[in-house]
Design brief:
Blueprint: H1 11-24, H2 36-43, H3 47-60, E1 63-66, E2 70-73, H4 78-102, H5 105-123, H6 127-143, H7 148-161, H8 172-190, H9 194-221
Antiparallel strand pairs: 1-2
Helix pairs in contact: 1-3, 4-6, 4-7, 4-9, 5-6, 5-8, 8-9
Keywords: DNA-binding, Transcription, Transcription regulation
GO molecular function: DNA binding; DNA-binding transcription factor activity
Organism: Hungatella hathewayi
């Protein structure tokens, strides 16, 4: 997930987290050739932890290794995006339906804090920080599932689309709709109306998927 890097204990884990976040943040765009020598120099480490980190990223589905060519940041197709968002909808729907059983006062406080933060960054027209808060909110919603397997699966799936987040909010109209949707999702979870929260969230994710697919199709149409 985006946000503060989690504590790590080995050089390999640190290298893995840095490269992963750089992929998710667009530093290394789709199709970028991740060369061990360049990464080793940039991160001031030997090639061994770089190689191990790249293997893990291959397993995560964030990069692809081609024999005799190297390792490249994965390029996503429309079908990839559709599949990823289908799974996101399933996982978040499950979490929202379970939220009534797991909504403590601490979680309620966090949800309210995210609502205030999203409204603040929307008013400030601060898209990047809004997106970061958006990421944190959806992660919190997943935590409300109380299911560790759902949480770990979601983290892997969400990482695949993080680099496209900004393209789901390319217009002011969509930015305005997004903050309203988030506010309504939070308010319905807090009031115990999981069905309505789920309905709004599904629409929210479907709209995000559509915007990302439009971006990919335009990108593919470029000469």
């Amino acid at each position: 997930m985006a946000g503060t890097r989690r504590p790590v204990t080995t050089i390999k884990e640190q290298v893995y987290q840095i490269i992963k976040e750089d992929i998710c943040n667009g530093v290394y765009p789709p199709g970028y050739w991740l060369q061990e020598t360049d990464l080793s120099a940039a991160l001031s480490v030997s090639r061994s932890p770089i190689r191990e980190a790249l293997r893990q990223l291959v397993a995560d589905g964030l990069v692809v290794e081609y024999p005799n060519r190297g390792v490249f940041v994965k390029e996503y197709t429309q079908k990839d995006i559709e599949d990823i968002f289908d799974l996101r909808i399933i996982l978040e729907s499950y979490a929202i339906r379970r939220s009534g059983q797991n909504l403590t006062s601490a979680y309620a406080e966090k949800l309210n804090a995210f609502m205030d933060t999203l409204i603040y960054y929307h008013k400030a027209a601060d898209l990047q920080n809004y997106i970061n808060a958006d990421t944190g909110l959806h992660q919190l919603i997943i935590e409300l599932s109380g299911n560790n397997l759902v949480i770990s699966t979601y983290e892997r799936v969400y990482s695949m689309v993080q680099q496209f987040r900004i393209y789901s909010l390319t217009s002011k109209e969509r930015f305005d709709e997004s903050v309203t949707e988030h506010t309504n999702i939070i308010q319905n979870i807090l009031s115990g109306n999981a069905r309505e929260a789920d309905r709004i969230n599904r629409t929210h994710l479907e709209l995000a998927r559509e915007k990302i697919i439009v971006y990919l199709n335009k990108k593919d149409a470029l000469p």
